[in-house]
């Protein structure tokens, strides 16, 4: 049984005339008659009663008409969903992200993506960069947003945007009176920072920058989350060097100042190199579009096709 046979039968049932039905489906009358006979032969029951003036449905034909309409409607929906999936408009996407991105970039990207592709279910998972790499290899996330470079040849990466480091100072700190700082201004200050094992690349980048400024930071307190570190700053325990978009965290007791020649931290999207699902490509394109309009530092190159 072919879909064209169902279309021919529906046209005949609704027109009640072989000639008009044939014109409606753009076939000759003989072809339409052959389709109806093929259906009747396959079903083993007559579907229509033929008279000189009009075609009427048999009881079996009336029942078959309802099923034929439902079948064609389902087929059309299936085709539409397949085409939508090819455009990345339906499906499911699991996105991993490091905790800091919840304060800048991630909310805007996800909100815009959900508005643009409302039929793609987006699941967010907060993971460290190392956990994201493992999750990508295990196929438990589709794309990761992280600050660390990846070296796994099975994973592809795309630089989404870049952020300089800034100084987070306790409110009322003498250095807060300056509009801009130089890194050596922080040489005598106690620092609060991440443990190295948690974010080794970030840690080493900051240490190298400070050493070039003539000192090694004196870390007096460690914490694993940015909000905790900023709370330590607000308590006057030390200074912190977060990425610039953390200035959005207007925590009482914390003042942010730019630092000249601050290193740039790159935020990457990472995915499996062999993953060509359209929803992933759509997500990357939305991310670039959103970040272009956000005013943050970012690479000029467009999103690549994730293949």
TrEMBL record:
Signal peptide: none annotated. Keywords: DNA-binding, Transcription, Transcription regulation. Pfam families: HTH_1, LysR_substrate. GO terms for molecular function: DNA binding; DNA-binding transcription factor activity. Residues 1-58 form the HTH lysR-type domain. GO terms for cellular component: protein-DNA complex. PANTHER family: HCA OPERON TRANSCRIPTIONAL ACTIVATOR HCAR, TRANSCRIPTIONAL DUAL REGULATOR HCAR-RELATED. Belongs to the LysR transcriptional regulatory family. This is Transcriptional regulator, LysR family.
């Amino acid at each position: 049984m072919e879909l064209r046979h169902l279309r021919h039968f529906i046209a005949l049932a609704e027109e009640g005339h072989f000639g008009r039905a044939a014109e409606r489906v753009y076939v000759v009358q003989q072809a339409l008659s052959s389709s109806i006979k093929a259906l009747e032969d396959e079903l083993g029951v007559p579907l229509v009663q033929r008279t000189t003036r009009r075609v009427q449905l048999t009881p079996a034909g009336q029942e078959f008409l309802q099923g034929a309409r439902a079948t064609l409607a389902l087929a059309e929906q299936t085709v539409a969903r397949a085409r939508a999936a090819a455009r990345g408009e339906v499906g499911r996407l699991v996105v991993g992200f490091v905790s800091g991105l919840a304060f800048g970039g991630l909310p805007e990207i996800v909100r815009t993506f959900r508005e643009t592709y409302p039929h793609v279910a987006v699941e967010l998972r907060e993971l460290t960069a190392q956990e994201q790499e493992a999750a990508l290899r295990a196929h438990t996330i589709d794309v990761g947003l992280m600050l660390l470079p990846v070296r796994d040849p099975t994973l592809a990466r795309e630089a989404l945007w870049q952020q300089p480091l800034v100084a987070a100072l306790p409110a009322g700190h003498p250095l807060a009176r300056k509009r801009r700082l130089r890194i050596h201004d922080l040489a005598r200050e106690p620092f609060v920072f991440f443990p190295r094992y948690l974010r080794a690349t970030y840690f080493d980048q900051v240490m190298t920058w400070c050493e070039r400024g003539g000192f090694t930071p004196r870390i007096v307190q460690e914490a694993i989350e940015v909000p905790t570190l900023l709370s330590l700053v607000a308590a006057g325990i030390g200074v912190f060097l977060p990425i610039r978009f953390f200035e959005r965290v207007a925590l009482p007791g914390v003042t942010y100042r730019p630092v000249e020649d601050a290193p740039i931290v790159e935020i990457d999207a990472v995915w499996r190199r062999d993953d060509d699902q359209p929803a992933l490509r759509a997500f990357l394109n939305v991310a670039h579009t959103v970040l272009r309009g956000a005013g943050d530092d970012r690479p000029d190159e467009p999103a690549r096709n994730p293949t």
